[in-house]
Amino acid sequence: MAKVKITLVKSGIDRPKDQKATIVALGLKKLNSTVEVENTPQIAGMINKVNHLLKVEEI
């Protein structure tokens, strides 16, 4: 399975609770934090939900 590198580039402050929870579930804690995860359908859906806050790169 392909991996994806996700970076939080915009703050989760003043966002709905579900978007904040999605950011935490992806493993992102602070601004400019980065995680590498497998690109599963579940992760892809989470990325799609908050894609306006993220920078996503294929690895």
Could you walk me through the main structural features you see in this protein, from its secondary elements to its overall organization?
It is a single chain. The longest helix is centred in the middle third of the chain and has 9 residues, at 17-25. Helix content is 31%, strand content 27%. The protein has helices spanning 17-25, 41-49, and strands at 3-8, 34-38, 54-58. The protein has a domain at 1-30. It has a three-stranded antiparallel β-sheet with strand order 2-1-3, with no helix packed on it.
Map the helices and strands.
Layout (H helix, E strand, L loop, with lengths): L2 E6 L8 H9 L8 E5 L2 H9 L4 E5 L1
Antiparallel strand pairs: 1-2, 1-3
Features:
59 residues; alpha+beta; 31% helix
